[in-house]
Each structure stands twice: as structure tokens, then as C-alpha cells.
Amino acid sequence: MNESKFISWLGRIASIIAILMYVSYIAQIYNNLHGNYAAPLQPFVAGVNCTLWSIYAYFKKDRDWPVFWANFPGIFFSFATFLTCFPW
């Protein structure tokens, strides 16, 4: 396997793992909505991080799609988790 093909596959696999990492917030969102509130700092910082990486990947001259798609779902899942950490 040549280097270019390896990097392409690595980007895809890393993107899938990152998306799964943010989808795993669903369990915490469920717990938060049922009164088992978690600390809000980590999902808030993750949401800011994902937002910044997504902006970076999208607006750079040669768009970095693996970085964008790895972080874009994290924006929504992280901030949803953050917002459900409070007993509104």
C-alpha cells in the first residue's frame, strides 16, 4: 500500500472513530434528561474545539474533509450534552 492510499484510509478511519466518540454523548444526554446531571465543562470545551476545527478544515485553501467531518457532528452532540447538564 503506498503512502497516499494509507493516509487516505487513515483519515477515513480516524473520522469514523471521532464521529463515534461524539455519538457516544447520547448516553450522557439521556442521563442528563433523566436527572443524572454530569459536569458541563468537558462537553462545552469539546463543542468549542469541534467548532474551531471544523471552521479551520472548511476554510483552508485545500479543504481538509476528514478533519471537517470528524469534528462537525461533535459541534451538535457536545453542545446538546452541555445544554442538558443543567436542570432548566
TrEMBL record:
Q: Which Pfam families match?
A: MtN3_slv
Q: Which residues cross the membrane?
A: 6-25, 37-59, 65-86
Q: Which InterPro entries match?
A: SWEET_rpt (IPR004316)
Keywords attached to this Swiss-Prot or TrEMBL record, sorted alphabetically, are: Membrane, Transmembrane, Transmembrane helix
Domain of life, per UniProt, equals: Bacteria
Q: What is this protein called?
A: Small conserved membrane protein
Q: Which organism is it from?
A: Limosilactobacillus urinaemulieris
Q: What is the lineage of its organism?
A: Bacteria, Bacillati, Bacillota, Bacilli, Lactobacillales
